Amino acid sequence: MDIAHKLRYEGYKVTPQRVAIYEVLHGRTDHPTAETIYRELHEENPTMSLATIYKTMDIFAKIGLVQIINVGNDSCRYDWDTHEHSHLVCTCCHRVDDLDGLNISAMVKTVEEISGYKIHDHHLLFDGLCPACRKAQSH
Ligand SMILES: [Zn+2]
Ligand SMILES: [Zn+2]
């Protein structure tokens, strides 16, 4: 994904800050918070504010570049991977993992049949204890 091209195509300005924010997020699997991204970018971009990161992520989400995962308590995590997948949240260490292999389209079809709604979005999130925390708690 060429971020500069995508921003321009959608009518947004390509700024060094926007590019830096996308580059920090791209390719990682830990679904960072805005604060995490802020901390990682702060040293090289001392003028970048936390608000800029929130605003930039909202733009990215609007144009389909990132997925915003609301993990509850007004806490958001960001995912550059926008293909359809679900998430697991550990209630102990707060890690967020990807979950693939669920038949989401079948689930959506069932929901439509039951409710009569035409579904156009869904947010599937599973809370639990991750394998590492389960192991730690069993000792
Ligand atoms: Zn955990
Ligand atoms: Zn994900």
Q: What would you say this structure looks like, in words?
A:
It is a single chain. This protein is an alpha+beta fold. The chain folds into two domains: 1-82, Arc Repressor Mutant, subunit A; 83-139, Dna Ligase, domain 1. The chain contains six helices and five strands; from the N terminus they run ααααββββαβα. A three-stranded mixed sheet has the order 4-3-5, with no helix packed on it. A two-stranded antiparallel ribbon has the order 1-2. Strand 3 (86-90) and strand 4 (96-99) form a beta hairpin. The radius of gyration is 17 Å and the shape is flat. The chain starts with a helix and ends with a helix. The mean pLDDT is 94. One zinc ion (ZN) is lined by residues 31, 79, 81, 85, 87, 98.
Find the structural class using helix and strand composition: alpha+beta
- Any idea of the CATH topology of the largest domain? Arc Repressor Mutant, subunit A
Bound molecules: zinc ion
What is the string of SSEs from the N terminus onward? HHHHEEEEHEH
Question: Alpha-carbon distance between the termini?
Answer: 45 Å
- Bulk shape: flat
Number of helices: 6
Biggest sheet architecture? 3 strands, mixed
How many runs of DSSP E, i.e. beta strands? 5
CATH classification class of the largest domain: Mainly Alpha
- Determine the oligomeric state from the structure: single chain
Residue windows where pLDDT falls under 50 for at least 5 positions = none
Mean of all residue-level pLDDT scores: 94
